[in-house]
Amino acid sequence: MKKKSIVIVAGLAVLIGAGVWYVGRDDKAAGAGQAGKGTAGPNGGAQPPAIVNVIAPQRQDVPVVLQANASVTPVSTVDLHPQTTSTIRKVHIKEGQFVKAGELMFSLDDRSERANIDKARAQMARDAASAADLERQYKRSEELFAQKFIARSAVDTLKSQLDAARALVGAGQAALQAEQVNASYSAIRAPMAGRVGAINVFPGSLVQLATSLTTITQLDPINIAFNVPESALGDLLAAQKNGAVTVDALAGPNARAVSGKLSFIDNTVDPLAGSIKVKALFDNKDASLWPGQYVTARVTVQTMKNAVVIPQAAIISNTRGTFVYVMGADQSAQQMPVVRLHAFGLHAAVSGLKGDEKVITEGKQNLRPGAKVKLADAAAAKPGAATPTTTVAAQ
């Protein structure tokens, strides 16, 4: 019985030793596999080079353009009101008509004003006759005083009476002019050239000071107003100092762009929106711009001469900065730090490149500095020109 137990214990010891040896062999094999995983390829060799596409940077002039949503606003608009209470005698214009400055638009009932003018003229004529009579008396009194037939006090009395009569003539003339001004209110004329809006009165309508007759809006020239971000204010002011700044307005995707000149930059920045209001003046003889219309405004604030342009897809930004990968002469990837100066569409003008590098545009996601690369297609290295477009959007 004792001999049998010894045999069982010896058998268990052999089994445990065999298990320990087997597990240790597997751990060594796994460690060897992990150690060779980063350096061995599928067939046990070195890792193959990354497949990439490259492009040559372009040298070209890049316009820096501000783009904003704008609204068309008239330079001036007038809401016509009568200056007296009366009735409309005749309407001389039609809705939508273009009128010239000084053109007769409405005639009011002016019978009372004309009667007052006649009354003022009659009063002035009466005062003038009285003054003429006193003047004759004064001349005779001067002759009588010279012959010592009357006292000096009588002459002075006639002189004061004559002065009073002359003052009455002046007052009568002023009253006549006042009545003529009141009568002029019965003929309402266009204060400026422009287009007539809706007409709200008709012959026989009673009008008062608060009655709106119609509006006149100046269409040529005309303004567009829009806001630009305050970050663009410096470039905008610098461009204005260098000369007239051209502004293009586009009324729709299929419309023809019209050009005007920057005419106004507001004197304050809106602190809530972080933008500043500007205006541009346009010739509008063909009435292509209409008050209240929404358009797209584009302002070229500067042109970057002979800038280095690359696709934006080639630029990498991370915690280490902004850079691109370029393919070196030894077919390896090299990091080149760049600064994005101006972005337009799919391209960007950058600094930090000479312009003769081969910038990697595709396949850069798994690259490391010094990693070997291989061109996917030799034709991808041919230069491709970039067409500048607008970039900065302003609300």
TrEMBL record:
Keyword terms, alphabetized: Transport
InterPro entries in UniProt: MdtA-like_b-barrel, MdtA-like_BSH, MdtA-like_C, RND_pump_MFP
Multidrug resistance protein MdtA-like barrel-sandwich hybrid domain segment(s): 77-217
UniProt cross-references to SUPFAM superfamilies, sorted A to Z: HlyD-like secretion proteins
Multidrug resistance protein MdtA-like beta-barrel domain boundaries: 221-302
Domain Multidrug resistance protein MdtA-like C-terminal permuted SH3: 306-365
Record's subcellular location: Cell membrane
Family to which this protein belongs: Belongs to the membrane fusion protein (MFP) (TC 8.A.1) family.
Designated name of the protein: Efflux RND transporter periplasmic adaptor subunit
The organism of origin for this protein: Massilia aquatica
Taxonomic placement: Bacteria, Pseudomonadati, Pseudomonadota, Betaproteobacteria, Burkholderiales
